Amino acid sequence: MVRSPRRGLAATAAALLLASLTVAVTAAPEPAVAAPPSTTSFEKVKLDGGLSMGEPIELSVLPDGKVLYINRGTSSGGGQVRLYNPATATTTVALTLALDARFEDGLIGITLHPQFATNRWVYLFYSPAVTPLVNRISRFTFNTSTLVLDAASETKLIEWPTERRLCCHSAGSMTWDSNGNLYFAVGDNTNSGGDSAGMAPIDERTDRDAQYDAQRTAGNTNDLRGKINRIHPESNGTYTIPAGNLFPVGTAQTRPEIYTMGNRNPYRIWVDKQAGNTLYWGEVGPDAGATIANRGPAAYDEYNRATSPGNYGWPYCGGPNTAYNDWDFAANAPRGWFPCGGSTGPVNNSPRNTGLQQLPPTRSALVWEQHGGSREWPALDNPGGCGSPNHAEVYHYNAGLNSPYKWPAYYDNKLIITEYCRSWIKEIQFDNGNPVTGNPTVIEPVVSGMPLVHPIDMEFGPDGSLYLLEYGNGYFSGDAAAGLYKINYVAGGRSPLAVATVNRDNGLTPLTVQFNGTGSSDPDGDPLTYAWDFDNNGTTDSTAANPSFTYTTVGDKRARLTVNDGTGRSGTTLVPIVAGNDRPTVTVGGVPDGGLFNWGDNLTSTAAATDPQDGTIACANVVVRAALGHQEHAHEEGQGTGCGFTVNTGPVHAGPDSVLFFVLRGSYTDRGASGTVALTGEKQLSLWPKQWQAEHFVTLNGPKVVDQAAAEGGKRLGDIQNGENVRHHAVSLKGITGVKARVSSAAAGGTVSFRYDSPTGPEVARLTVPGTGGWDNYTEVSGAVTRPDDGTHDLYLVFSGTGTGALFDVDSYTFTGAGVGTPDTNPDRAQGRPVTVSSTEAGANVAGNAVDGDSATRWSSVYASDPQWITVDLGATYALERVRINWEAAFGRAYQVQTSPDSSAWTTVYSTTTGDGGVDDLTVSGTGRYVRVYGTQRGLTQYGYSLWDLNVYGTPATGGGTLLSRNQPTAVSSVADGTVGASAVDGNATTRWSSAYSDPQWISVDLGSVKSLSRVVLSWETAFGKAYQIQTSPDNATWTTVYSTTTGDGGGDDITLSGSGRYVRVYGTQRGTQWGYSLWEFDVYGS
Q1: What is the fold, at CATH topology level, of the domain defined by 501-579?
Q2: Is the dihedral of CA 787, 789, 792, 796 positive or negative?
Q3: Distance CA 514, CA 549 (A)
Q4: Which residues, in sequence order, are bridge partners of residue 156?
Q5: CATH number of 962-1086: 3.90.10.10, 3.30.470.20, 2.70.170.10, 2.60.120.260?
Q6: Rounded distance between C-alpha atoms, residue 1078 and residue 218, angstroms
Q7: Would you say 274 and 396 are in contact if contact means Cβ atoms under 8 Å apart?
Q8: What is the pLDDT of residues 997-1050, one digit of tens each?
Q9: Residue 8 belongs to what H/E stretch?
Q10: Given pLDDT bands bounded at 50, 70 and 90, which one contains residue 1075?
């Protein structure tokens, strides 16, 4: 297809820029290399797979070819070490560990001692269910007779404190060098949300949770988190410090175990014992999808190399030593760029830093991918911002190894890397052929076209084959697509692939199962024969392609299918069958899969389970979990029961460049049956925001992603030509009545047709795009949605128009109508508001935790002292209706709830002397801006007072005159996403006005005649004004400022003022976020 010359020029410019950048980072031209082996010379052999694997995390290959792998586990069921035995082609459980598996913790690392062949030692990195919270590495002994790890043999090697109030970043990988030193990777234990905007999480405010500040971990020389640490385990279970770590033993305010610091989430590490113990790792980066000019770069994901200890920059620097700004979160302003790449490192002056302030100089990554695309390394192909670098390992070809499956000499001394999010394996070539000293030059695909489903770990085994663990498509759960594989090099012919399916894999006896082996195939086209062993006793029970078998005895069965291609090669697969127990069936109600919502909506769901053996299942026994999805992973957001679970979806602290959604998962584990394992049933739904950036597609059939600063996410879908299309995620249009799109065209325009299931499927909406006079001249077009049903369908956008070449560009599209969310009409007025307290217990249980919307974080006062109090500033005066107090174990026996207009004169609206802890949900009546819980007698005298949540509900007070602005005409500087000015004066707390993402912006209201003014109440959405004025005018031309601030903090602003005018304007000069300005309500009072 002929392409528009406008894109050709852009491509040429980009190529020239890329060439100049490549010269800058490459020390020598690419050497001539032989052609890589074809993917057809490799075979992918399945060893294990499916839901029985649990949530697979990491593997280790034993010298005899057995494979140990771990699943992360759950807090209720523990985590498993599982053993695949190639002699029997079966997997058994070698150990189950009790865990605290919240967020990304659990059983997250496994490695074999270098002398495993003689001492049988296996090391596990896990999160024990103990308090205080720690993560731990322990040594266990493997029993070669029983093929289990002896739980009684546990020897605790090292543990360190951790925090589990917020998600994420645990890492967990371990590896060894040739000197018997153990390296272990620990993530920064920091949440990427809050007010960090996907940039550096360095929020130093003391009323914010410590987990929003990575300077306490990754930037702290006295903490093992955010590090790759190196120790020497001794045979007696202790460890010593090897020479040559980052800080010598005895250095004040440091941990001598640290080898590298400045790590965010070094998910997989590996040491090349044959090349000077060079350390390689993949580093998962932050979330920013675009650069913010005064704050920092679009996120970098990294592959790194270390030949000596050093500082790899986080949270101050990223990728090629690109600096972040030292952001002042209190003032919402930059302090200055951190020094990156020079002879002096950054200064860590966070109040949470317990280490040195002056940090070592920072180092660049080896190669990096940047969200939105990698100019320096285009082969890392990351246009959509989905990045999760994983394993990095140098392959060493052994000519003397007698193995038919070892990888070829072509890959000798090549660095093999994997990517979890985008499911690929690639190789990095170096200018001098040496990964230790060379400069990266070329990145090429490996086994291109071979299907992969989120590779999470890999390892070259003793036979030279690549062992691969795939996570599957789940989120914090097992998945049918998870698997353990070998990728063999078989230049002389490939083994057939055995695939077996069943009509059912569980049920009461007699259990008749219909098997189907016709999905098996031979990559060389050889005819196949089938051999079924239904009870896995070594005897062939059937040679039919599609046999059936009836199980008459209760138990956990393994049916084996072996297919032969007639050349001596075979493939095998196992199907687990549970005879004597039925898997529960779980349904999730209330919202359909793929439903659409607005950020800030409540999502309310129910879940039910049926199980023939368990009888009636109470809804309280069905678990519903919510997670905030980001690209191909998710962050847990809380859980409830099937009786009814409501989760609020916002505000979400990320820009329009981020791919965010919500996941709801219902699950129930049955009680098992005699002689069988317990079975878990699950149902998972994905729910999507109504607004979607056009460049965030699932499949792209023709158009290109174009960079453009004025696009909402910094990019748009461009070069759209007749007959092309893109596919969105599967959606349900329940509750949707319309759709609108932000478009531009320097040509004649065309049409966008929204269709179900295929590019030629039923049309549900059509938009007509006009010529706008320029590719960067945006306009909004809209149309009605006519849906045939409320079911879930793949959604296609099909583009058409007349003529050749580019027709138009699409920046974003937004669905209108109620969708499946419910507006939060009476939100928690305390959430995110400023808090003051009488005292804080030493540690991380700060005041802000009580109002952060997270029931896993808390505020705690000092011990053994009365009275104690916590006060929240609501920002405006409210008529209070309800106060909810969620006590931790340290509750208030006697306390009052009080209100105040000024934080000085207090009125008690509730009082008790018989508090018993738990949740106190109180109906109150009173008015005030400040709300205080004032404790006079502790319920547990040895402790203080501790709150998981303080929630305050009410409506804006009506004092200060008559409301003059309701439903009056408005004017605005700009509109974003169709949120017009009238929505700010309509009295509806669920509608809003929002502006473009620039300064200045304004909204004015016409009161109809000149009025005397006494009060203005502003209810900000997440996008608030940091600096703004309230202005009045008699004629909409001459303006007088009656109020001004440069320290706005969002939420509610209740402003007493004096002035007069017909027109009242909010004039913003500095935004508080990367977005524009957005007001739920703009109320003007007077007479």
Answers
A1: Immunoglobulin-like (2.60.40)
A2: negative
A3: 7
A4: 138
A5: 2.60.120.260
A6: 35
A7: yes
A8: 889 999 999 999 999 999 999 988 878 999 999 999 999 999 999 999 999 988
A9: helix 5-25
A10: confident
Q: What are phi and psi of 6, to 5 degrees?
A: -65, -35
- In degrees, to the nearest 5, what angle opens at C-alpha 173 toward C-alphas 172 and 174? 120
Distance CA 643, CA 636 (A): 20
Indicate the domain borders of the chain: 170-376, 501-579, 585-689, 691-817, 835-956, 962-1086
**CA atoms within 13 Å, Cβ hemisphere of 542:** 17
Kindly report, residue by residue over 34-83, the tens digit of the pLDDT.
Answer: 678 988 899 999 999 988 899 999 999 999 999 999 999 988 789 999 99
Q: Residues 584, 75, 123, 119: is their CA dihedral positive or negative?
A: negative
Which residue shows structure tokens 């003014």? 1013
The tokens for 181 are 């030193």
DSSP letter for each residue of 1029-1056: EEEEESSSSS-EEEEEES---SSEEEEE
Q: Measure Cα distances from 1075 to 292, 713, 816, 919 in Å.
A: 11, 10, 21, 36
Share of the chain above pLDDT 90, in %: 69
Q: Which residue would you say has higher pLDDT here, 24 or 124?
A: 124
Q: How would DSSP label each residue in 573-605?
A: EEEEEEETBPPPEEEEESS-TT-EE-TT-EEEE
- CATH class (in words) of the domain with range 691-817: mainly beta
**Which CATH fold would you assign to the domain 585-689?**
Immunoglobulin-like (2.60.40)
Tell how far CA 393 is from the center of its chain. Answer: 25
**Reported CATH class of domain 835-956:** mainly beta
**Other CB atoms within 10 Å distance of the CB of residue 825:** 10
Is the backbone of residue 180 left (phi > 0), alpha (psi -120 to 50) or beta? left
**Assign residue 823 a region: left if phi > 0, alpha if psi is -120 to 50, beta otherwise?**
beta
User: For 117, phi and psi rounded to 5 degrees?
Assistant: -60, -25
pLDDT score of 632 more than 90: no
Domains 691-817 and 962-1086 share a fold: yes
> In this predicted structure, what is the pLDDT of residue 357?
98
* CA distance linking residue 1055 with residue 1028, whole number of Å: 12
Direct distance between the N- and C-terminal alpha carbons of the chain, in angstroms, rounded to an integer: 67
Kindly indicate the confidence band of residue 105, based on its pLDDT and cuts at 50, 70 and 90.
Answer: very high
Residues 6+ apart with CB under 8 A from 919: 884, 885, 886, 887
Is residue 666 a contact partner of residue 642, using CB atoms and an 8 Å limit? yes
The model's pLDDT over 830-849, given as tens digits with 9 standing for 90+, comes to 988 889 999 998 766 889 98
SS3 of 631-700: the string is CCEEEEEEEEECCCEEEECCCCCCCCCCCEEEEEEEEEECCCCCCCCCCEEEEEEEEEECEEECCCCCEE
CA dist., res. 1041 & res. 136, Å (int): 60
Task: Report whether 807 contacts 717 (CB < 8 A).
Answer: no
Two tokens, residue 449: 């076209």
Q: What are the tens digits of pLDDT across the range 579-618?
A: 999 999 999 999 999 999 988 888 999 999 999 999 899 9
3-state secondary structure string across 28-57:
CCCCCCCCCCCHHHEEEEEEEECHHHCCEE
Top mean-pLDDT range of 539-543, 860-864, 963-967, 1014-1018: 539-543
Amino acid at 256: P
Q: Render pLDDT for 664-685 as a digit per residue (tens, 0 to 9).
A: 999 998 988 888 888 889 999 9
Q: Note whether 427 and 441 are within 8 A (CB).
A: no
Res. 288 pLDDT band, cuts 50 70 90: confident
Residue 814 has pLDDT above 80, yes or no: yes
